[in-house]
Design a protein that fits this description.
2 helices; 11 strands; about 35% strand; alpha+beta; five-stranded antiparallel β-sheet
Amino acid sequence: MFKELYNTDSRGQVGIGTLIVFIAMVLVAAIAAGVLINTAGLLQTQAEATGQETRQQVADRLQVQSATGQIKGEQGNATLENITLIVTKSPGAGDIQLENVTFQLVTDDKVTTDVINKDNVENITSDTNDNVITDRADRYEIILENGTDYNETIEGGDSATITLTTSSGASTIEELRVPDSLVGRTAVRL
């Protein structure tokens, strides 16, 4: 009776079957782990790219230091001839190419959208001759000339909103208000 209980002939085959099942489970687990590691790496790369783009959309903005306007015409029909913006980059922003900046000027009567070109940009403080703001101390002058850029008559008491959007998608909105009286002035602060 005890002799049949401890038969070693059939026990070896059960051990080999268990070993084969165990090896198969290890292989399946290794493949699953490889897939998970590859997926995690892909998700990490996508998350880093999304974080970079989001940071640029939030931080890579222009900061308007001042806005002025040149006056043309006489007492009864004085209007704004052009708008001059002094800009720099906002804190934490990367380099900003001014020739890739779009602007949208919204007045009571008209909405104008255009891209700032090199003829509208003048370097004030940067040591380089390009139109790229690389340092917070850099100041550039953007001139929007009436008749060529926005062909709009802006008179005393009018207001306008200008939106400057960098190539990364970050926007700066500036509300411009023209003083009520333009009589005897050649320029005004907006």
